[in-house]
Amino acid sequence: MTRTARDAAPNGAPIRVDGVAARVTLQTIADKVGVSRMTVSNAFSRPDQLSPAMRKRILDAAKELGYVGPDPAARALARGTAGAVGILLTDSLQYAFTDENATGLLGAIADELAPTGLAITLLTTPERQDVIPARDVPLDGALVYSCDIDSPGTDWLRRRKVPLVLVDQEPDGETPSVNIDDRAGARAAAQHLVDLGHRRFGILNSSSVGPAGLLADPRAARSGYVSRRRLLGWLDVLDAAGITPTVVQERSYAAAEQEIGARLLLDQDPVPTAILAFSDAVADSVVRVARERGLRVPDDLSVVGFDDSPLARRMTPPLTTVRQDVDAKGRAAAAALTVQIARANAASTGGEMPERPKDLLLPVELVVRESTAPPRPDREASRA
User: Fold this and answer.
1) pLDDT at position 349, please?
2) Which of 220, 217, 271, 284 is nearest to 247 (CA)?
3) Which class for 254: exposed (0-12), middle (13-18), buried (19 or more C-beta within 10 A)?
4) What is the pLDDT of residues 135-186, one digit of tens each?
5) What CATH number does residue 150 fall under?
6) E strands along 113-171, which residues?
7) Is residue 9 scored above 70 in pLDDT?
8) Rounded to an integer, what distance in angstroms lies between the CA atom of residue 329 and that of residue 344?
């Protein structure tokens, strides 16, 4: 016989309708206990309004019926808070779980937010007509991280007036931002190789926006904020040294795409003696392709990465790179976002307004390991 949602199942089993678990509501519990729906609601949201005995009867009935609590969306609407913050990423959530730099940042954000009780929701920038996460997911605030600042996702968050903090994004003078000194780090990397005596340079950059492949005019090519800052830092040093590098930009952070870019660089005649890579993961792709070509690192080719992720220390040889403090960046971003949320709450309630978080530019440091060395005299002498 088909049961209705208001019928109690025997022996405390969840109510089922035609073999499917039925949705248990506050009214279902009220009918079972013989009280009003408001009384049941008070048992969950205003327990001080009930006697301990009555509240226990209601909670016991709820447990018997398989009721887990008020609907989260309705509860969020009633109390005016979602209990969650969003992190707007690039075009794929996979990046958050496969890139060690991204996972380190997310871990630091989660740890900093833990005392607040706020959960983390990952949002992507692509959208379907019926599914737009940045528009539809309840959020108390959001971090815009490593994505096109002009993406529809960012636009939706701004239109919703969600409290925001920018991470690895160009400061706009209005929204708090947390960045590292990408340009200074890139300068240090390029200067290290110039000081070693290298004159034939390749650059393998990555950007989720802009062209892909060999760049005839790197300064004029569109790219993301971090990619742009690092490119400018490398060129600051190389221009001053009278060196014109070969520059390749790839649109994907995937290893297979980066290997295509590395092959373009190593197909040049003459072959570069030094390559500056957008990240440690990109540098790893360069080293793999170099080995395919029979080139030894650093004897035939010096390679410098960026980030000092755990990968840099695992590589053979260990990678010279630019260290950024991912933990500090993630914690600073999370702390700034909690202040932004507090500011929004104060604006709506008339409470005391906290001071706007300042834009942060965190320092970086060149870490010299075994992937760089002076160019071999025979290779440098063969330059065009």
Assistant:
1) 85
2) 217
3) middle
4) 888 899 999 997 777 888 888 899 999 999 999 999 999 999 999 999 999 9
5) 3.40.50.2300
6) 119-123, 141-145, 164-167
7) no
8) 23
The answer to whether the CB of 285 falls within 8 A of the CB of 305 is no
For residue 380, report the phi and psi dihedrals to the nearest 5 degrees.
Answer: -70, -35
pTM of the model: 0.80
Q: Is 276 helix (H, G, I), strand (E, B) or coil?
A: strand
For tokens 């993630």, the residue is: 330
Domain count, the chain: 3
> Which of 48, 70, 92 marks a domain boundary?
70
Domain that holds residue 129: 84-179+326-362
Distance CA 296, CA 371 (A): 10
Task: Specify the pLDDT at position 127.
Answer: 60
Q: Are 73 and 137 in contact (CB under 8 A)?
A: no
Determine the 3-state secondary structure of 102 from DSSP. helix
Chain segment 278-303, per-residue pLDDT in tens: 999 999 999 999 999 999 999 999 99
Give Cα separations from 61 to 10, 14, 332 (angstroms). Answer: 12, 11, 45
H-state helical runs in the chain: 26-33, 37-45, 52-65, 72-79, 94-98, 100-113, 133-136, 152-159, 182-196, 225-240, 255-266, 280-292, 310-314, 326-349, 377-381
Q: Residue 339's CB: how many other CB atoms inside 10 A?
A: 17
The three-class DSSP label of residue 264 is: helix
Q: Each residue of 187-232: pLDDT tens digit?
A: 999 999 999 999 999 999 998 888 889 999 999 998 999 999 999 9
